[in-house]
C-alpha cells in the first residue's frame, strides 16, 4: 500500500496505483454520493484544456454549441426500441417533485401526493430529447445540415465504479447532427472519428486504432459505430471515443422530415458522437509512472514550474526577482508557467509535489545559479536534469523543449503499443497471449458471427475492440470456429 505521497507501484497493484494517483495528484476524490466523484481544481483544469481544444476543433468543422434538458420523459425512450434496450438498466428515474417534513419529525420524506404524471429519466444520453426538438427545427432542405454539439453531464447507474473510467455521473460532450442524405451522414460520422483520432494523438499524445464496432458492440440505435481504441500500460484496451451513424432510426421515431428541393418529404439522416471524462483515465494510464502523473505539455495546466532556492533573506529578493523575470518572459511567449514562491514548503517537497502532478518542465534557480548565469532544468517525462545557460532566449529554449516532450511522450506510447501488439492464427496462441502479464492488442481472424464473438468473450474475457479501418483484406480462417474470415479484427481485454 502507498504511504504518504508515495504511490503503490504499477507492478505491485495496477488498479491501486491508478486510484492512488488520482487522489494524491489532486485530480478527483470519491463523493458522498455513491458512484460519483468530485473533480478537484487541478483535475478540472486538465479537463478544461481538453474541452477548449476539442471545442475549437468542433467549431472548425462547422458545429455550434447548444444545451438540452437534463430530464427526458420516459415515453421518449420507448420510441426507439434498440435505444431503450441499450440503456434501460442504467437509467436513474425521477418519480416525485416534492419533499415534505416527516410526520414524526425525523427529517424529510417524499410527498406521496407529488407523484409525477410521467416519470422523468435523468439524461443517460440525449438522442431522444434532441430528436424531439429537431422535429420543430427542421422543415426544409434549407435547414440542413444541422450540426449541434452540447457539453453536459450524464447519468448511467453503474454498479462497479472507478474515478474517471466509470462513474454514475460523468461529464462529456455529445454531438447530434441531421443531414439530407445517407452519404452526408456517413461522411460526418467518419469526419468526427478523424477529429477524435487527431485529438487523441496530437493533444493527448495517445496513439489510437481507428475502427468500426461489430454489430454486437454498436451503440444502441446505431447502424454503425466508429471508435478509437488506446492501449493502456497494463495491456488492456480503453475505448477513447465513439462516433455513430444512426441512419433514419431516430428521425422515424420522432417524425423528423424535411421537404426536398423537389418538394418531396424525406426522413433526415442522423449521427451522434461523444467523448467523456474517461479521457482523463486514458491519459493517466497511457503515460504516468510510479512517481505520479506524466502530462503532455498540450494539456498541462502548468507547462513549466519555477522553484526558487535560497537559505538567507539577503538571497531571497535577488533570486525571486530573477525567477519572476523568467516567469514573465515565458508567459509572454504563451507558456503556462507557475512560480512556486510558497515560503512554507521546502524545495525538495516542491520538487516531489510537481513531479507527482506531472508538470513537464521544472526550473530551479538558486544564488549560485544566479551568479553563474545558469538554471537547472528537469524533464518530467525522462526524469532527467540538465544545467543550462540562462540566456535571453529562455522562452525559445523552453518552447522547443515542450514540443520535444510532446513528441517523445507520444512516441514512447506508440513504441509500447507496437511492442505489445501480436497477430495469432490459432485459438491456443490467442489464449496463451491473453495469459501474459501484458496481453496487449491481438489481431486475429473472426468469422463475423455474434455467436463466435460471444463465446470468445465468455471463455477468455477478451472482446473485439474494432474492425480496424485501413487494414488490408486478408483471407484466413476464424481462430475459434475455423470458418472463413476476410480480415483480422482487433481483440483485447478492456476497461
Describe this structure in words.
With 495 residues, the protein is of the alpha+beta class. It folds into 3 domains: 274 residues, BirA Bifunctional Protein, domain 2 (2-Layer Sandwich), CATH 3.30.930.10; 98 residues, 3-Layer(aba) Sandwich (Rossmann fold); 71 residues, C-terminal domain of ProRS (Translation Initiation Factor IF3), CATH 3.30.110. It is 34% helix and 27% strand. The chain is built from 13 helices and 27 strands. An 11-stranded mixed beta sheet has the order 3-9-10-16-13-12-11-24-27-23-22. It has a 5-stranded mixed beta sheet with strand order 18-17-19-20-21, with helices on both faces. The protein has a 3-stranded antiparallel beta sheet with strand order 4-8-5, with no helix packed on it. Strand 25 and strand 26 form a beta hairpin. Helix 2 packs across helix 5. The radius of gyration is 26 Å and the shape is globular. The two termini are 23 Å apart. The mean pLDDT is 96.
